[in-house]
């Protein structure tokens, strides 16, 4: 029951930089120039510390350097480094998809019976390509886009799931590995494609669902919810408009062409800036009245931490005033909430203290004059969720 650990050192670097993804050396270089920083190693270490708390004697197999060894050492667990793709000082952090696939295959050959990896959908696709079909995998969410169903809801949940798997308390279930072309995504044509189906440790509330798209039959409901946002906008307030189908509709109603995946800045019906980075967003909200408008990721229920990493913990805190809750408007159709089946909305800013303050309940704008009060939970709270939770 040995666990293999694999980290994509550049996963998620494009998120805070507002680039909609991290695929390709050019994108990664642009992300660094805009202040982007990959957190995959940190999130992997957090997952492994959670595993270590339950199984301090757990034995790991991993890959050298930033591709796993560093995170394993930070957790205090013993890890044996296997032959395979390595992240060496002369190469720097820029590993490739082929490195990830070779490393996954090397871990399986060395005896890993579960591969715990940190990254996003692209990393999941590469890991799946290297693993035999009988070796399950589990993702520590660290990318920009995470449409696949192979991820835990957060790093702590991933560590808990791995511990459950060692204890025989987490059965596996098939999950879809999805990925999409990032250039098409940036152009507003999201079209996830199925690349594999793999077994994944599954516990309700800890393993995330795959992202669900908005059906065409929901267009009228999306328009009504977006009109509800526009009706509530106040003069002389700067609005950070996050990505999503519903928020894009807000832009259409205002007569603005918002970026489909980016974070845009709007004030009094005028588009002030498109595709803001985390740094840009911080500068925009300081020193004046500011708000954010975000939507719910269908099927998963995420509010923060999936696809909108520009709204970092620092930015969210900057949206608070005199210790009040951050000024964030949530918009979604009623059907999107119903489809969650009672599961709460989720926040994963990377700051557990902030996530805890965001937990509780939120008023979701669902129409021109309608709202729905819905529960919110931090992903650090890994207790299983019953379907009837309200």
TrEMBL record:
Pfam families named among the record's database cross-references: NAD_kinase, NAD_kinase_C
KW Kinase (keyword) present: yes
Keywords: Kinase, Transferase
GO molecular function: ATP binding; NAD binding; NAD+ kinase activity
SUPFAM superfamilies: NAD kinase/diacylglycerol kinase-like
InterPro entries for this protein: AcoX-like, ATP-NAD_kinase_N, NAD/diacylglycerol_kinase_sf, NADK, Put_ATP-NAD_kin
GO biological process: NADP+ biosynthetic process
Gene3D superfamilies linked to this entry: Probable inorganic polyphosphate/atp-NAD kinase, domain 1 (3.40.50.10330)
Protein name, as recorded: Polyphosphate/ATP-dependent NAD kinase
């Amino acid at each position: 029951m040995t666990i293999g650990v694999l980290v994509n050192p550049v996963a998620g670097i494009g998120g805070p930089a507002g680039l909609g993804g991290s695929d390709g050396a050019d994108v990664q270089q642009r992300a660094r120039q805009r202040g982007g920083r990959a957190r995959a190693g940190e999130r992997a270490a957090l997952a492994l510390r959670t595993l270590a708390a339950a199984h301090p004697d757990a034995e790991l197999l991993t890959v050298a350097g930033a591709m796993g060894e560093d995170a394993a050492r930070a957790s205090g667990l013993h890890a044996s480094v296997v032959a395979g793709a390595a992240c060496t000082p002369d190469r720097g952090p820029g590993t490739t998809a082929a490195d990830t696939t070779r490393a996954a295959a090397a871990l399986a050959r060395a005896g890993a019976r579960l591969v715990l990896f940190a990254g996003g959908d692209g990393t999941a696709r590469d890991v799946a390509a290297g693993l035999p079909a009988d070796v399950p995998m589990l993702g520590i969410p660290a990318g920009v886009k995470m449409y696949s169903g192979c991820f835990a809801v957060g790093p702590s949940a991933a560590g808990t799931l791995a511990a459950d798997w060692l204890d025989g308390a987490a059965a596996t279930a098939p999950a879809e590995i999805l990925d999409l072309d990032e250039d098409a995504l940036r152009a507003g044509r999201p079209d996830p494609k199925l690349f594999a189906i793999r077994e994944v440790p599954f516990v309700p509330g800890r393993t995330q669902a795959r992202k669900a798209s908005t059906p065409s039959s929901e267009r009228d409901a999306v328009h009504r919810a977006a009109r509800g946002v526009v009706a509530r906008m106040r003069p002389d307030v700067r609005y950070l408009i996050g990505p999503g189908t519903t928020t894009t509709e807000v832009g259409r109603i205002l007569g603005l062409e918002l970026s489909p995946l980016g974070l845009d800045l709007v004030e009094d019906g005028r588009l002030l800036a498109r595709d803001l980075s985390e740094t840009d967003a911080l500068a925009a909200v300081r020193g004046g009245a500011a708000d954010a408008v975000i939507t719910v990721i269908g099927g998963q229920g995420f509010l923060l931490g999936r696809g909108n990493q520009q709204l970092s913990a620092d930015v969210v805190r900057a949206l608070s005033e005199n210790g009040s809750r951050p000024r964030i408007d949530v918009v979604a159709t009623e059907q999107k909430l119903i489809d969650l089946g009672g599961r709460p909305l989720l926040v994963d800013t990377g700051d557990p203290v902030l996530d805890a303050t965001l937990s509780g309940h939120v008023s979701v704008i669902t129409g021109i004059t309608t709202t729905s009060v819905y529960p919110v939970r931090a992903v650090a709270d890994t207790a299983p969720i019953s379907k009837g939770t309200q």
